[in-house]
Amino acid sequence: MPDKAESALRVRPGCATPEPPQGLAARTSARHRSHPLKHYVDGILSGHRTILAQAITLVESSREADRELAEQIIEECLPKSGGSIRVGITGVPGAGKSSVIEVLGTYLIRQHGQKVAVLAIDPSSQLSGGSILGDKTRMNTLGSSDMAFIRPTPARGTLGGVAQRTREAMLLCEAAGYNTVFIETVGVGQSEIAVHDMVDFFLLIMLAGAGDELQGMKRGVMEMADLVVINKADGPNVGATQRARAEAQNALHYFPCSPSGWTPRALTCSAQSGMGIPELWNCVAEYAAATKAKGWFKLSRQNQAQQWMHEIIQRELKRRFELHPAIREQMKALEQEVAEGRSSSFRAARSLLEAYSDPSCQA
Ligand SMILES: Nc1nc2c(ncn2[C@@H]2O[C@H](COP(=O)(O)OP(=O)(O)OP(=O)(O)O)[C@@H](O)[C@H]2O)c(=O)[nH]1
Ligand SMILES: [Mg+2]
């Protein structure tokens, strides 16, 4: 993992969640990490946040040696996971996703005695090699609570890969006893779909007057939402947010009925004043109760587990393919042939696949 991407794991100063080791330190500590499986599993199950953070670092590691241990940790923790409500939160940059999580998370801790985990996917690290979250994670109060765990995750590799690691981090948080897991993602590319496919409840945060297209109405994001919240309903903005709420509610009517049987709603809230935050949570709780009663909650998780299996197979096949000696030997030359038009993409791909499945070329 490059140093810049590693720096994206850094949690803003003042946030209580322990920082994983950075840069060279991370690699050095990974190399010398002698903790046995039991250290991680016992630590996670007893809710030890530093050990949970270490385990997530292992899960995110691309080192072969870490991979095996990470899989064992997940395997051991899996039976203890599943007990949370998983809430995906998306919206354009600046919509107030982090601010809403800060206020809602604090509300859940104080009013409902919950433990709250936040996993934030940062797609910028893939594009720029840096992190926007380190500077922008607006979760001061939540971050200083013993009942919260906040973890920015740099997006690297494929978006499927992002989903994979985030899903695994989410399961570890559940095993550590977190009652609600929030996954924040910026509305970029396919990250929203990836997150939608791993959560129970999908929340779209919008702003009044920011343009429907930009905010996802025409990108199909709204169709995935169980709740649309128009944030920043405070000061002179109140009237505009009320109108935007009515428009959003109207737009939601045009989407086909969800297989969950749930009718998506539109609300307003203000992360600044706290207005609408209890109502927002009531909606999540109502959704969970209704879909549990109908069996959809369980069915959806079963589907997601199957999808996870397929993702693991795809990831593993890709990894094995790329590590195969015959592929490593031939790939560059064939890429060149395709680029120069000396071979068709189809023929080159077929030749590589044949080399991969040729028993005489096995690793
Ligand atoms: N007036 C007002 N400002 C808000 C509210 N919620 C968030 N903000 C402000 O809006 C800006 C963006 O808030 P964030 O919570 O960082 O937004 P975000 O959607 O997480 O942004 P990214 O993570 O960059 O995509 C900050 O300056 C917040 O202080 C609100 O309810 N009212
Ligand atoms: Mg944010």
Description:
The chain is 55% helix and 12% strand. Residues 1-32 and 125-136 have low confidence and may be disordered. The chain has helices at residues 3-7, 23-32, 37-45, 49-60, 64-77, 97-112, 124-128, 133-136, 140-143, 159-175, 191-196, 212-215, 221-224, 238-253, 277-294, 296-323, 325-339, 345-357; strands at residues 85-91, 116-122, 148-154, 180-186, 201-206, 227-230, 265-268. It has 363 residues and is an alpha/beta fold. α14 links the parallel β6 and β7 (265-268). Strands 3-2-4-1-5-6-7 form a seven-stranded parallel sheet, sandwiched between helices. It binds guanosine-5'-triphosphate (GTP) and magnesium ion.
Task: Write a brief structural summary.
The chain is built from 18 helices and seven strands. It is of the alpha/beta class and 363 residues long.
